[in-house]
Amino acid sequence: MKKSTLYTISAALLIIIGIYWPSGIANSLFDIIVHIRFAIHTGDGGTLITDAMWLCVLFSIPNILIFMGLDLLRQHFKVLKSSWWRYMIFTFLFAALKIIPAIIFHQSIEILSAFLGVIFTLFLIHITHYVKHATLPHVIIAFQVFFLMEWLNVMPAFSRYHLGYSDISVSLKIASGYLDNVSTINAIGLSFVAVLTVSSLMTAIIFRLYVQNLAIVEENYANALAFESIQTKMMNNRVYQEINVLAHDLKTPLATVRGLSSLLVLTKDLKKLEDYGNRIDQAVIKMSDMISGFLYGSSRQWTEVEALINYVRSQIPLETDHIVLSFEMKEDLPPIYINKIRLARAIVNVISNAMIAPNTIEEKRIIIEAKAAAQSVLITIEDNGMGIAPADLDRIWTIGYSSNNTSGLGLPFAKQTVEENEGSITIDSKVGVGTIVTITIPIQPKETEHEKENTNH
Amino acid sequence: MNKLKAFGFILLGIAMILIPYQLMQPDDSVIYTDRFLTAPFDDDQVLITSAGQSTDTYIVQDAANSIRLNNLFMPEASSNDLSDVSAMIIVIGYSQMGLSLNDRTFSDEYDRVNSLLQSNQASLPVVAVYLGGSLRRNKQTDQLLELVASKSDVLISVTDTNDDYIQYLIGHYDLSYMILDKLNNLSKPLASIFR
Question: Would the pTM of this model clear 0.80, i.e. be above it?
């Protein structure tokens, strides 16, 4: 069933039940009359109070039902924006649905309190500022308001304001006057009215705060999604930059192939031909490895640490007079299972960061060291720059964050790459002293001969 | 905050101040009568009946019992019930629920009361009691008031600052009357009317 049809049917049902309700509760009203007679006979004022409460419940229910039916229609037809004339039409329809059936079916109703109730309920709903479907809060508010309005009908104090002129309300008030119970009913009624007024106000205010918070959460969520999208685009751009570097790196072996190809044409020495062919083959393998390493980020091979460090050295931008790079490597380092091309680029990014970081002394020293640790190989990049403040350390891995007017993508790219190789990267820094970046690559057990054949020297 | 909300909050604030203040005001308290009965009525057996079938009839019954007034309580008394009574108290007040409980219409009730009053050949004293004030005033109650007052000797009512109609009935039908300040004082005028 379509949602619109369900809404319309539900609204119609609520309104029909609300219209028929006063006729349907005739026996309950007769019981109240009998109780009033009994209370007069026995002098029991408590019975009147109980009947007053029961009368309030019976008379508030049809008002709540008709209100909810109209409110459902209002929400369904999207007449949700607040305006004077929309509220007036709503009130007019409500009054018509109360008065016309009362005349036709000779029902006993309290129209003034119902009218006040619908106005106060609409006022509270207006406070909530809610413009989407909000059935439950409206039900809670309507129940409180219409119930408190019915108490005004049974309190003798409000008779002077033309409230409570239906047959049973009048009988109740006259009987309470005879039993000297007027002040008791007034006091109890006032308690209900005061508490329910405050409660209904608080319900509207709390719901409004909820709506405001919901709007803020939705806005924050949308902003977070947009920010994540921007970050993803930035990382994708970073990858394209790395591809540019790769394309640049491919020129070297291509130049080698071209040079050797031209020599092949010129020489007739078979030994030299074989040598040139082998070198061309190696250059092609190198290019293939570089391309595969980038195309298939998860593709890894057994690599000697020395080969990795040498590849890194070939990628580093030229040293200047004020930057001194030194490489230290321990002996007998075990091979590691990595994507050499991408991990090398990650290390180059870290070194580039160290190179551009400001320093307090004239000569910057950057030491790249590779050593073994428990079940892992540590590659540390240590510099004597200005260091990183502790507050910045927490944000240094955030995409887009930079303290040196760079893109802020290098370190996040490095971190992502190291973690893709099952490693970890940490930064230890002291302001005024320097920074140590430690890349930890776990030593994996060599499981098959096939994997050994993939070891790259 | 827009004008609608500001208006609503102002109204609410005024109501929350005025309502408790009004509730603390003392009720008007007036007792007066300047048309006394020349003599009390005989109290051998008084018929208490209703004109309109409101619950006010039971209040009069309870008040009568409290002063040990010998009474025959028949809310739907007919002309056949007048034989052994020395006076009538007719409690006026239209109640749709009361009539529906007895499966009667207003015209049935009017005819019954009219017949009862018309058949009062022995000119039994008739005391009209109206306790509804302005709350029970409507077209049907007014018709019953007019009917009963026209054949009554005494009218007992309650004070109601806007109820000029009762004053009209008293003047028009030259009735002796007693106006009560509080309903629970009903036994006093009954005691003074019936010996």
Answer: no
Which residues of A make CB contacts under 8 Å with B?
Answer: 26, 29-30, 33, 36-37, 40-41, 43, 82, 84, 106, 108, 123, 126-127, 157, 159-160, 164-165, 167-168, 170-171, 173-175, 177-180, 186, 190, 193-194, 197, 201
Mean pLDDT by 10 residues, chain B (195 residues): 77 78 55 58 83 95 92 91 89 93 92 93 88 89 94 87 77 88 85 81
3-state helix, strand, coil split of chain A in percent (to 5) is 65, 10, 20
Quick check: A315 and A345 in contact, CB under 8 A?
yes
Q: In what order do the strands lie in the sheet with B154-158?
A: B71-73, B46-51, B87-92, B126-130, B154-158, B176-180
> Where does residue A307 fall: left (phi above 0), alpha (psi -120 to 50 degrees), or beta otherwise?
alpha
pLDDT(A41) > 80: yes
Q: So what's the pLDDT on residue B30?
A: 44
**Three-state SS for A364?**
strand
Q: Which of A151, A175, A23, A170 is nearest to B140 (CA)?
A: A170
> CA torsion angle for A185, A187, A193, A198 (degrees, to 10)?
-160
Provide the 8-state DSSP code for B32.
B
pLDDT digit string (tens) for A379-411? 999 998 888 888 888 788 887 777 777 767 778
Three-state secondary-structure class, residue A264 = helix
Taking the CA of residue B109 and the nearest CA in chain A, the distance in Å comes to: 17
CA–centroid distance for B106 within its chain: 17
d(CA A451, CA A448): 5
Mind telling me how many Å the CA of B119 is from chain A's nearest CA?
29
Q: How far is CA A20 from CA A15, A104, B139, in A?
A: 9, 11, 26
**CB-CB contact of A238 with A406 (8 Å):** no
Q: Do the Cβ atoms of A248 and A300 come closer than 8 Å?
A: no
The answer on pLDDT for A456 being more than 50 is no
Q: Kindly state the DSSP code that residue B46 receives in the 8-state scheme.
A: E
CB-based contact A26 B96, cutoff 8 Å: no
Residue A401 CA to residue A412 CA, distance in Å, equals 9
On whether the CB atoms of residues A366 and A381 are closer than 8 A, the answer is yes
